[in-house]
Amino acid sequence: MSFKDAVKLGLSPIMNLKKDTSTRRAGQVTYDDLLNAESEIGRTLFGPIPYGHQREFFESKKNVWIWHENWLDELGAEQSITIRYEVRPTGVYKKSSGGKYVMLENEELENFMTAVRSYFELAKHQLYC
After folding, report:
1. Range of the domain at 23
2. CB 26 within 8 Å of CB 40
3. Which of 20, 56, 65, 72 sits most deeply, having the most CB atoms within 10 A of its CB?
4. 3-state secondary structure of 21
5. Rounded distance, CA 45 to CA 74, Å?
């Protein structure tokens, strides 16, 4: 659930988010705070994160999802992949870094939908009341 959706539904963040009180009033939660908290939830949906990897999965704006992972390969070179998913009336499309949009089908579509449902359920129960 995105920050905008939570506000529209009248939901309040309840998670103890880290706040930089030097730049805003104590207790004030920003869009970035919630996006980061939701991303922490999203990174757990795909199983354990291998040592040295960083993973993100979140809704960056309505109907646009980002999955990003970066790691060091066996030679110590940094590797990364970013996939952008767009939910459109005609289907769900993904685009890898520099690639073309491809429509999700079959098991890949089911996996994406399962991840999104889980994301919303966890965010609802862990971040919003």
Report:
1. 3-126
2. no
3. 65
4. coil
5. 25
